[in-house]
């Protein structure tokens, strides 16, 4: 490709709307341009990288035995009504009507569509298992699009689904996909970690892993053991429970006693007023799970994990109750709520809070708390479970030596087991060996193709710009003649350009009539891995060869440069 004719508009200034490194560099390097909030056009350089990522994903999926197909992005609302997600999915679902006033959605995901297809086309156990995948643009009306393509309203995704007659069979495919994903992200040049995860709005049961590209700007918090290989996102992470400091059980705990606590509604205020550690308090919060009030209790030094609570309650929606709802439902003032004496409401307590021997909690009266509260003696919860966020320093649940550390990650892939969540609702069944109809068991496997571009850039950049790994670089080599008016330089540059192309190597030649400094800055910015500069010593057969990643630059013969490049590119 000749740069003089290429649409490659680099920018010197950092765009004001760009908050993170990848967004700034994608705009500055002429990779994307914004069309509307959260909606981007991929310019030629960016589209080349996007296709490279797709190719790697496609190769590994096909190697894992998956078959590619392509669905419509436009989906009839009837399918979403069948699964209940028309109402459940929320405002992120892009809804529209055709000229006949029939409801449709622009697909954010394709569980309904693919399950419907399998229902039509597969009826016997003899056709199972099967894994199908597509690479397609998805649409989600994000409330707050940000970070460029990291959280956009339109994005490219690979989604795959597997169909099985048994959970054991699904286990085999799940492990195959786990290996395929590990191969994909390795080939993309990412530093990544598979972590235990939550299925989220799509749902599912059993094993569940996210593949996180580790980066400081990641929106997800990952809890990692300091000793073993345990890793989980914050929604899923657990800790080995340890007793709260200074709260060991005793044979005789005094009876409950009310405390006058004027204007002390928060844990920090109570700690200051009573001189007691935060772990002594039973912090009580009120939620609405599918519209029904639920009381959730954690220790004062812990926070509720809403994802865990939602899963425990098997709720479709979960939200904090407002002050009016709390006072109307419980008859208790906000800031002084406690579980003692509550009736007609579900009470869920975290395991560590249930272990508090003599706790302090709200008395359901203004300016009043109760101390010496014992779980089981003074109130009986309906459920005792892990519903809290882990904190740094918690003991690892997987080993005895390690503690949990927090890191940030970008979710680039997600694999999980759907079970019969969709097949049972849509009626996707198969006939077993006894000709009896059974619900098909499903697995789901997604990769954010466009998000991978941002993740690669976040991990591969310096003050000069992007540093693309060879596997996804828009071009392998950047050939730069210093002076395009010098016939000798242009002749050598053109000859090298054509010879490399003949070897199947992708080359960009900077044939612009620009100052050398401009060319070199642009070259660093767009991040092509290898560079050959044809300058004053071209007549001697000497060129400069530079590796973008290391910055190492050497003067070599033209033949040496050719051999070095072919070895690096064709040998990858």
UniProtKB/TrEMBL annotation:
HAMAP family: Pro_tRNA_synth_type1 (MF_01569). It is found in: Cytoplasm. NCBIfam families: PRK09194.1, proS_fam_II. One of its GO terms (cellular component) is cytosol. This is Proline--tRNA ligase. Residues 33-469 form the Aminoacyl-transfer RNA synthetases class-II family profile domain. Consists of three domains: the N-terminal catalytic domain, the editing domain and the C-terminal anticodon-binding domain. The gene is proS. The lineage of its organism: Bacteria, Bacillati, Bacillota, Bacilli, Bacillales. InterPro entries: aa-tRNA-synt_IIb, aa-tRNA-synth_II, aa-tRNA-synth_II/BPL/LPL, Anticodon-bd, Anticodon-bd_dom_sf, Pro-tRNA-ligase_IIa, Pro-tRNA-synth_IIa_bac-type, Pro-tRNA-Synthase_IIa_type1. GO terms for biological process: prolyl-tRNA aminoacylation. It catalyses: tRNA(Pro) + L-proline + ATP = L-prolyl-tRNA(Pro) + AMP + diphosphate. Its EC number is 6.1.1.15. Pfam families: HGTP_anticodon, tRNA-synt_2b, tRNA_edit. Catalyzes the attachment of proline to tRNA(Pro) in a two-step reaction: proline is first activated by ATP to form Pro-AMP and then transferred to the acceptor end of tRNA(Pro). As ProRS can inadvertently accommodate and process non-cognate amino acids such as alanine and cysteine, to avoid such errors it has two additional distinct editing activities against alanine. One activity is designated as 'pretransfer' editing and involves the tRNA(Pro)-independent hydrolysis of activated Ala-AMP. Belongs to the class-II aminoacyl-tRNA synthetase family. ProS type 1 subfamily. Homodimer. It comes from Tumebacillus algifaecis. Its main location: cytoplasm. One of its GO terms (molecular function) is proline-tRNA ligase activity. Keywords: Aminoacyl-tRNA synthetase, ATP-binding, Cytoplasm, Ligase, Nucleotide-binding, Protein biosynthesis.
């Amino acid at each position: 490709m000749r740069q003089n004719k290429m649409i490659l508009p680099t920018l010197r200034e950092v765009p004001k709307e760009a908050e993170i490194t990848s967004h700034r560099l994608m705009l500055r390097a002429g990779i994307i341009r914004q069309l509307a909030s959260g909606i981007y056009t991929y310019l030629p350089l960016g589209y080349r990288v996007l296709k490279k990522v797709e190719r790697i994903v496609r190769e590994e999926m096909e190697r894992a035995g998956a078959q590619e197909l392509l669905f419509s992005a436009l989906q009839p609302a009837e399918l979403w009504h069948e699964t209940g997600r028309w109402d459940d999915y929320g405002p992120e679902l892009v809804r529209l009507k055709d000229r006949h006033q029939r409801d449709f959605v622009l697909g954010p995901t394709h569980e309904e569509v693919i399950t419907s297809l399998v229902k039509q086309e597969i009826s016997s156990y003899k056709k199972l298992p099967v894994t199908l995948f597509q690479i397609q643009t998805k649409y989600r009306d994000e409330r707050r699009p940000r970070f460029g393509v990291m959280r956009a309203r339109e994005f490219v995704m690979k989604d795959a689904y597997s169909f099985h007659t048994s959970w054991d069979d699904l286990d085999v495919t799940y492990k195959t996909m786990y290996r395929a994903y590990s191969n994909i992200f390795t080939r993309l040049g990412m530093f990544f970690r598979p972590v235990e995860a939550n299925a989220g709005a799509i749902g599912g049961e059993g094993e569940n892993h996210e593949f996180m590209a580790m980066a400081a700007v990641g929106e997800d918090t990952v809890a990692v053991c300091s000793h073993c290989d345990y890793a989980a996102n914050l929604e899923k992470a657990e800790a080995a429970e340890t007793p709260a400091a200074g709260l060991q059980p005793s044979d005789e705990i005094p009876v409950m006693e009310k405390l006058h606590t004027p204007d002390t509604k928060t844990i920090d205020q109570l700690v200051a007023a009573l001189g007691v550690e935060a772990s002594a308090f039973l912090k009580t919060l009120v939620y609405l799970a599918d519209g029904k009030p639920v009381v959730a209790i954690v220790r004062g030094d812990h926070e509720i994990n809403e994802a865990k609570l939602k899963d425990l309650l098997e709720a479709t929606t979960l939200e904090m109750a407002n002050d009016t709802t709390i006072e109307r439902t419980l008859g208790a003032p906000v800031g002084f709520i406690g579980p003692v004496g509550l009736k007609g409401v579900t009470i869920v307590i975290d395991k560590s809070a249930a272990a508090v021997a003599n706790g302090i909690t709200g008395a359901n009266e203004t300016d009043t708390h109760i101390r010496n509260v014992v779980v089981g003696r003074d109130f009986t919860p309906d459920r005792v479970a892990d519903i809290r966020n882990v904190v740094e320093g918690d003991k690892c649940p997987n080993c005895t030596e390690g503690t949990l550390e927090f890191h940030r990650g970008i979710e680039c892939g997600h694999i999980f087991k759907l079970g019969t969540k969709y097949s049972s609702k849509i009626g996707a069944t198969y006939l077993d060996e006894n000709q009896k109809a059974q619900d098909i068991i499903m697995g789901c496997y997604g990769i954010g193709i466009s998000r991978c571009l941002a993740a690669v850039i976040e991990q591969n950049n310096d003050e000069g710009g992007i540093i693309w790994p060879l596997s996804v670089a828009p071009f392998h080599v950047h050939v730069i003649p210093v002076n395009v008016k010098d016939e000798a330089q242009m002749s050598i540059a053109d000859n090298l350009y054509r010879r490399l192309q003949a070897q199947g190597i992708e080359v960009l030649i900077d044939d612009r009539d620009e100052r050398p400094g401009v060319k070199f800055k642009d070259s660093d910015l767009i991040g092509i891995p290898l560079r050959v500069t044809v300058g004053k010593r071209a007549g001697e057969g000497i060129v400069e060869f530079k590796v973008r990643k290391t910055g190492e630059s050497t003067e070599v013969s033209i033949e040496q440069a050719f051999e070095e490049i072919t070895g690096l590119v064709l040998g990858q």
